[in-house]
Amino acid sequence: MFEIIDGKMISNQIKQELAERVKSEGLELSLAVVLVGDDPASAVYVGNKKKACEMVGIRSVSHELPASTTEDELIELVQKLNDDDSINGILVQLPLPKHIDEDKIIKTISPDKDVDGFHPESVGRLSIGQPGFVSCTPAGIIQLLKRSDVEIDGKECVIIGRSNIVGKPMSMLMLRENATVTVCHSHTKDLKEVCKRADILIVAIGKPKMIDSSYVKEGAIVIDVGIHRQDNGKLCGDVDFDDVAPHTSMITPVPGGVGPMTIAMLMNNCVESVNLK
Ligand code: GUN
């Protein structure tokens, strides 16, 4: 029998712990949430982030700007938030409209307030094992594994996907936990054979149900980062759950697996901002 890793439950547990810490330490924290344009998915994510702030006891300060906002205007706002001592964290929701250079905006955010962990300084700190903000989705996956009593030390971990937000920081975090790490991508030869080596398989490819049981070693732990809306209206991941689950020891569902953890770890980064100055 396999165990389903309940990301919703674990994320609620983390938010509860953070709420208790905010209360007991009397922390007064503010997160600036910047949304540019009217992408409906981004609006939902930002709404969920603001709700999580309420639950944890963090003040969220919303900046909703029109799609016509110029790069210079956005840079000016971020600089103002950098200089505002009442703001602890700055979140600029991605993607930004095409006429704005995302890298330039990310670099403008002060590394002291980079709760997304996207700034090159945060990425550099992670890669050399110094304290700093860690990208929320990979940090959430580490929490899912640890809180499910998974021993990572010495395990074979295969990550499919090499994005700056998930694959690359994930590989750094698994290395920090003493896993043997392999990162696969679109040019990997014999993807199936490589995946079958994994004790822990982390899938972040962005293709609905691409990974079936022929990619999975019997008894492996499978973490699915993907989320897609199917033609029938239901959500699915990058993993074909029904086919793969019976061959695993543990697996995350979609929805309710990795997704809720991203926001919980954003809240964690906001609270940790007091220690990372
Ligand atoms: N867009 C999709 N995921 C994220 C995220 O984790 N942070 C930000 N800022 N934008 C996103």
Description:
The chain contains ten helices and eleven strands. By secondary structure, the protein is of the alpha/beta class. A six-stranded parallel sheet has the order 1-11-8-7-5-6. A three-stranded parallel sheet has the order 3-2-4, sandwiched between helices. Strands 9-10 form a two-stranded antiparallel sheet. Helix 2 (40-56) links the parallel strand 2 (30-36) and strand 3. The longest helix has 18 residues, at 7-24. The chain is globular, with a radius of gyration of 19 Å. The relative contact order is 0.17. The structure holds guanine.
Structure ligands: guanine
What profile does the largest beta sheet have?
6 strands, parallel
Report the average pLDDT across residues: 97
Q: Span between N and C termini?
A: 46 Å
Radius of gyration: 19 Å
Q: How many β-strand runs?
A: 11
Beta percentage is 15-25%
Task: Offer a few descriptive terms.
single chain; alpha/beta; six-stranded parallel beta sheet; three-stranded parallel beta sheet; 10 helices; 39% helix; globular; binds guanine
What is the gist of this entry?
It is built from ten helices and eleven strands. The chain is an alpha/beta fold and 277 residues long.
What layout of secondary structure does this protein have?
Layout: E1 3-4, H1 7-24, E2 30-36, H2 40-56, E3 59-65, H3 71-83, E4 89-92, H4 102-108, H5 120-127, H6 136-147, E5 156-160, H7 167-176, E6 180-184, H8 191-195, E7 200-203, E8 220-224, E9 228-229, E10 235-236, H9 241-244, E11 248-251, H10 259-272
Parallel strand pairs: 1-11, 2-3, 2-4, 5-6, 5-7, 7-8, 8-11
Antiparallel strand pairs: 9-10
The chain binds guanine (GUN).
